[in-house]
């Protein structure tokens, strides 16, 4: 057996969050006892709450708010499908209440936008500007959302290192979530899978963490691929690892690689032996895994259920995760895909819910479920380790898991807040957008027709069914406000732009002598002669003296000159292949942001035109020969462009008083609906009629005016073309 490790660059290009043992059996028992005690004492605590704090809903305009978050739902696409009669429940909600575009965050990416939704402040208030940032002391990449450390006190016994305390796992998002503010006022919430909620912050409510929950290995998602095929060599997959299988007759022995074992000196990888036995009829494979009580029968092109993988760490100590297996072929070669190893919700190695028993409760009620923040394995499809059928099936299975949790929450919360985010719309649009553009570079060597050519539309229609079920469940309850929101919309991603290559060609970035390119993470950059560099999906940093370890740009006039000069030049950058502009707008962060975290922002925020985005190489700090490259990956749609190009959607069963709502208005308005005064630091405004106000206020309701949609660039009649203009490039009919 040969095991080859690839450098994991996950779905949204980023380093791992790290892995650390957390929790214990005793802690789990304590959580169960606490949960049972809470249930038994609920009547007493309810009466005591009424005596001590009174009725928290006394001034409320609504007693229940349900937020259905559909990541990436695009206003142009949803408008077209409503017009065609294929999303009747969305149309019904819009006609009864309101449908508007929803201004997104800047940058327009999920960790930034959902952090704005959670806190009611922009990125300079919550401090999340991208999936990645850089360590100013080393220029190395850091995950923006979470810091995972190890236990500070340990006991050394021979080869074992026994932690004497829990590791420190820190959420780097600043400010505080509005559901915590509601909890402080004794208004209960259930929050499910909202991005950037790992680790969960304690509050009066229930929470299941979302995007940026790591896998069991501490990465943002590392898949495994086992195959007997060796004819073409063994590729080093981006985002995964391949094991070459050695077959003896119908039996194959191999191993599953788990997390590093921090309880043993040297932190060796934990592994589990596996045996594969090919059936005589070549129609199935029986898989036996050490520690699993029963063998698992795998059929071709069919996912296994979630399988628990238990890795021994030390005597009486083990760590468990869950994974699914997909047999991509049996004959003539055996090829097996394994999902990233998710944290086991029944026995979580790291905190993924608040309280910890909530994750266990969901698993006990509905069975094991995906816990990885980026659970849909986009890189496995990008690398064609799995095909579109396998990716689509896995994505919809995760959607079904989320739907069960969502309606469980709705059934349990009669007064308070329910918020659940579905990632399905986002992931399917990322990976199937090429079908909307016949000339997309990603179509080279791939089919442009077939079963999954309409995958995006199918998912939108599926979400319409979930909304219909919700509206039937809620009925005509006048005390319940139903919102459907998305954090951003979507556009084409045809061409990648390597800002680092542009900086080098324009004299702002210098490589070491003899180098004409650089690998990932600025491998050959000469920092003593470099003024600027780019990392992540929209940010560009100035190598500032006194901030970066080897900074050379002086604060004051030199800094101002360099930032304005780069911004001005980038806004005139022309793609030689199309003759069109690649960048719509460049914001200079110190002049754009006003919040307390603005000093941690990239110095420049690059707002691309539709059809463009930071190239994959640029996102990982590489310097290549070319500035512009075709995007040939299945990941063919995106939203990391100028925010004006990709507004989200806002549907609600109540009219609003603002013609153009913003994502930052939503938490402010929910607090106000519950009769709670939003804190002064929140940057939003109330979009609903306040309680007690009459109908004299001009309200906005009903479907979005098509003329307004066309003016914003979301015209549902537009065709995806080859030009970068969004009005042409955004959505197809």
Brief summary of the model shown:
This protein is α+β, with helices and mostly antiparallel strands.
What are the SSEs and their pairings?
Elements lengths: L1 E3 L20 H29 L10 E7 L4 H9 L4 H9 L1 E5 L7 H10 L3 H4 L5 E3 L6 E3 L2 E3 L5 E4 L2 E4 L5 E3 L6 H7 L4 E4 L12 E4 L14 E5 L12 E5 L2 E2 L2 E10 L8 E10 L5 E6 L6 E4 L7 E8 L2 E7 L1 E5 L5 E4 L3 E2 L9 E2 L1 H11 L11 H5 L5 H25 L3 E7 L1 H9 L22 H20 L5 E6 L5 E7 L1 H7 L26 E3 L4 E4 L14 H14 L12 E6 H4 L11 E5 L2 E4 L1 H4 L8 E3 L6 E2 L9 E5 L12 H9 L32 H7 L13 H4 L4
Parallel strand pairs: 2-25, 2-26, 10-11, 10-25, 12-13, 27-32
Antiparallel strand pairs: 1-13, 3-35, 4-5, 6-9, 7-8, 11-24, 12-22, 14-15, 15-16, 16-17, 17-18, 19-20, 20-23, 21-22, 26-35, 27-33, 27-34, 28-29, 29-31, 30-31
Helix pairs in contact: 3-11, 9-11, 10-11
